[in-house]
Design a protein that fits this description.
10 helices; Heme Oxygenase, Chain A; 281 residues; disordered C terminus; mainly alpha; single chain; 70% helix; Iron-containing redox enzyme family protein; Haem_Oase-like_multi-hlx
């Protein structure tokens, strides 16, 4: 930091403001169930089975990280955009409550931008951690942006993420955000578990190898991001069935993209292998 003698948070006791979770309407809790019971989760499980069936080549890891990277790139600025939209809307009705309510969404961006431990200054952003992870396999940021390494549905997914966070009705965007945060521990968890299981073969030195910090961070924080998103839906809709139904549309929009993405990624990396297996059978 430019002034190393400066200390944050020494004037007040922040513990007096500890966040207390709010009651959540049953129809909003059900949004999480809609995520976890969606067929797209089964598609991810199939991808996980294939991912653990053999080691990936460097070219396949490049496809994996470049394709997933399209999603990784879009989410942090999208979260900020949605929080800003919510603030602006609520500011017109309840100006002193607007930032506090929108903070449920911005909460996720604190981690994404590396702002979650300000007593020690800025940490690497999640984008920086992602590039650091790819570098372990000598995959560059340029490689991650090369269309030859990216399945088409990854680009489509990224466009949909940008559209929902920035343009779609806020209530639909909130449902979309809940699905995003609910699924992140699932797919990132698959990658983390796989790289840990075969860490020696992938050149990793420990279960919590620093090259995996991007995945480790998400393993730590995503559930809290999801629950804050659920609270944002509660605050925005107050459980109103019509509004929650709109949020549910956002959930399903996300999950449909998610399923198509992992179907195509699975086919790109494992399709020929699956074809050979069927031929032998």
């Amino acid at each position: 930091m430019s002034n190393p003698s400066y200390e944050r948070g020494k004037s007040i006791d922040n513990s007096q403001y500890a966040h207390v979770s709010m009651p959540i309407s049953d129809n909003i809790v059900a949004l999480k169930d809609a995520v976890f019971s969606h067929p797209a989760v089964g598609i991810l499980k199939k991808f996980e089975e294939n991912l653990k069936s053999r080691l990936l080549t460097r070219d396949e890891i490049r496809v994996l990280l470049a394709s997933e990277g399209m999603f990784v790139l879009e989410v942090p600025p999208g979260i900020v955009a949605l929080a800003s939209r919510m603030t602006d809307e609520w500011f017109k009705k309840e100006p002193f409550a607007a930032t506090g309510r929108a903070s449920r969404i911005l909460f996720a961006a604190v981690d994404e931008y590396g702002l979650n431990d300000m007593e020690h200054g800025l940490l690497p952003s999640h984008h920086q951690l992602y590039v650091d992870m790819a570098a372990h396999w000598n995959i560059t940021a340029k490689d991650l942006l090369d269309d030859r390494n990216i399945v088409p549905t990854a680009k489509e997914f990224a466009g949909t993420i940008g559209d929902y966070y920035r343009k779609r009705p806020i209530v639909e965007a909130l449902g979309f955000h809940v699905a995003n945060e609910a699924t992140a521990p699932l797919d990132f968890g698959v990658f983390l578990a796989t790289f840990r299981e075969y860490r020696e073969q992938y050149g990793l030195k420990a279960q919590n190898d620093p090259h995996l910090n991007f995945l480790l961070v998400h393993d730590d924080v995503e559930v809290s991001h999801r629950e804050m998103g659920v609270e944002a839906v509660q605050l925005y809709t107050n459980g109103d069935p019509k509004l929650v139904s709109q949020a549910r549309r956002g959930v399903f929009a996300y999950m449909e993209c998610y399923g198509r993405f992992f179907t195509q990624l699975n086919d790109r990396i494992f399709g020929q292998q699956d074809t050979r297996a069927r031929a032998r059978a």
